[in-house]
Design goal:
The structure holds two protein chains of two kinds. Chain A is α+β, with helices and mostly antiparallel strands. Chain A has helices at about 5-20, 30-40, 75-80, 85-110, 110-115, 125-140, 145-160, 160-170, 185-195, 200-205, 210-225, 235-255, 310-315, 320-325, 330-345, 345-350, 410-420, 425; strands at about 50, 260-265, 270-275, 275, 290-295, 300, 305, 355-360, 365-370, 385-390, 400-405, 430-434. In chain B, about 35% of the residues are buried. Chains A and B meet through helix 15, strand 10, strand 11, helix 18 and strand 12 of A and strand 1, strand 7 and strand 8 of B.
């Protein structure tokens, strides 16, 4: 890559990779400056207001008033249609955004994996899913607000010429409002589109975008009452990439400065700063505090499941009665896990209704049975296998490991075999275990 | 007769037919051939060279759940010791072994274990 535009693309990709989404920067002056620049790009001119906590902005309200999260994926997805409930919408957006983005990349760039060995990752990191999901939620916080500036912006973009339209066509798969989306969402789309355009196999495919996709764009412009401009010749790769960068780079800069999301509220462009985020490497997770934290608003999560604060900070509040009142399996598992993490699995089994359902040379198979169906544990009940380490400790004792296994396991050997992806018959060949 | 298995913590090795290594994987800077590394502890399931070759060939991993397959090792010398800070060393005779990691169940899917 020697062309000037390719150096710009490389610089953008490097900046994206350097953003710390877990402990983001807090640069109010930088946020102000970049949003002034962004407003010029999208054709909006509004006074700016910085919010250091979503509680400062009235349009976002928690479902239960105390910013505590108690729902899991299934509840959240089912409740996603309720506009007043921002917790369910957040998770729905995260999941929808992740699925949409993955499907888009798979659909647009199937040659990439074959041709290049991966300018784009096949699985996007959870970090950006989380950040983009949160930011998308705020962006969609008020439908009325988004119409004010997307119309103005779309007209601005349409007037800017064919390169901008072609650039729009490329970023559109990431969401129709892509250039006006929240910083993390736009930065993600920018990064992925530029990385793909750097691969000439993908570029050739993108450049040969069919007429039908242009028709889709024309239709969308008509829906915004914007007449489709005459095509004045196919813009060159350099022009298109520059247009993409011009459209979307300010949102990358916003991420770097610590902005999370923005929306028009009472005539102001309100920007909410990014929270600190804790994960276990894959999912929102923190054992000793909130997994998402602004100055005031906090959310607690265990391995990707949101939990009320009290259960994370005071696990002794998790009882059999609490488990009996929980219908969702993921939430139940999370609560059991929190308790076991705090007090050990042995006590967890004693206090939360654990029973041994089978024992053999491989270990002990336990079932958590809070409803006391001891004679016939429910097939869906949570199961763990207790395995003694094959190696002694210096004092002669042996560590015990507890592994979660599928609820349909019937014997300890079957469970241990499953943990290695084997059948009990395959596991019969064990010579030594240390 | 069941395939011979050797388990060390969250790693298990299956004795398989000898094959020509394809898709060689590099060792660590200290020369160790590392099968897996603990995310939190940094502890390694590793051989100290000793005529051990690590390679990864997806064509040889059919039948292994995809995320569990680590690779294959070929032991060229008479034997090699698989070491780990928390487990006794396993001495493996010469031959080829398929290596997989352990998983744990979570509602909604599985989770790979990293000791």
């Amino acid at each position: 890559m020697t062309d000037g535009i390719d150096r710009k693309v490389e610089a953008i990709l490097d900046r994206y990779a350097a953003v710390d989404w877990r402990q983001p920067a807090y640069d109010p002056a930088g946020i102000h400056a970049v949003y002034q620049r962004w407003q010029a790009v999208v054709g909006v001119e509004l006074p700016l207001r910085l919010a250091t906590d979503p509680a400062e902005v009235g349009i976002w309200r928690s479902s239960n008033g105390d910013n505590a999260f108690a729902a899991t994926d299934s509840d959240i997805l089912a409740a996603a249609a309720r506009a007043e409930s921002w917790v369910p919408r957040f998770w729905a957006e995260v999941l929808a955004g992740r699925v949409t983005t993955h499907q888009t990349i798979d659909r647009l760039y199937p040659e990439l994996r074959l041709a290049s060995g991966g300018a784009l990752p096949s699985a996007l990191p959870i970090a950006w899913d989380v950040a983009a999901g949160w930011a998308t939620l705020f962006f969609l916080g008020s439908l009325n607000n988004e119409c004010i500036w997307t119309e103005a912006s779309a007209k601005h973009i349409a007037a800017a010429g064919p390169a901008y339209l072609r650039a729009m066509n490329l970023v559109l798969p990431f969401g129709f409002f892509a250039p006006w989306g929240p910083p993390a969402s736009v930065a993600l789309g920018l990064r992925n589109v530029l990385a793909a355009c750097s691969n000439m196999v993908c570029w050739r495919k993108l450049a040969q975008t069919s007429i039908s996709q242009d028709d889709i764009l024309a239709q969308q412009l008509l829906e915004l009452a914007i007449p489709a401009p005459e095509k004045r010749g196919f813009p060159r790769r350099r022009e298109i990439l520059q247009a993409i960068i011009t459209l979307c780079e300010p949102m990358l800069a916003a991420c770097q400065s610590g902005a999370l999301a923005h929306a028009v509220v009472d005539g102001e462009l309100v920007i909410v700063v990014s929270p600190s985020i804790w994960t276990d490497g894959r999912r929102l997770h923190r054992a000793d505090g909130p997994a998402i934290a602004w100055r005031q608003t906090k959310a607690y999560a265990w391995k990707g499941v949101f939990l009320p604060e009290k259960f994370v900070l005071q696990p002794d509040t998790i009882t059999r009665e609490v488990l009996r009142g929980v219908a969702d399996a993921r939430l139940q598992d999370a609560l059991i896990d929190v308790y076991a993490h705090a007090y050990g699995h042995r006590r967890c089994m004693q206090e939360l209704g654990g029973v041994v359902v089978h024992e053999d040379g491989a270990g002990r198979l336990w079932c958590i049975d809070p409803h006391h169906h001891q004679s016939r544990p429910l097939i869906g009940d949570m199961k763990l296998v207790e395995v003694v380490n094959g190696t002694s400790e210096p004092d002669g004792s042996r560590k015990t490991y507890w592994l979660r296994v599928p609820p349909w396991m019937r014997t300890a050997q079957e469970a241990v075999a499953w943990t290695y992806g084997m059948t009990p018959a395959e596991y019969d060949g064990l010579v030594v275990r240390t | 007769m069941a395939t011979k298995l050797y388990a060390q913590g969250d790693i298990i090795l299956e004795r398989v037919e000898d094959v020509e290594p394809n898709g060689l994987l590099p060792g660590d800077a200290d020369g160790a051939v590392v099968l897996a590394r603990g995310e939190l502890t940094g502890h390694r399931h590793a051989f100290r060279g000793e005529g051990v070759t690590l390679f990864r060939d997806e064509a040889l991993a059919r039948g292994v759940p995809r995320d569990l397959y680590i690779g294959h090792i070929r032991i060229s010398g008479p034997s090699a010791g698989l070491r780990h800070e928390e487990h006794a060393t396993i001495t493996l005779p010469a031959g080829t072994y398929r290596v997989r990691r352990q998983q744990e169940w979570e509602s909604g899917g599985t989770n790979l274990l990293w000791e």
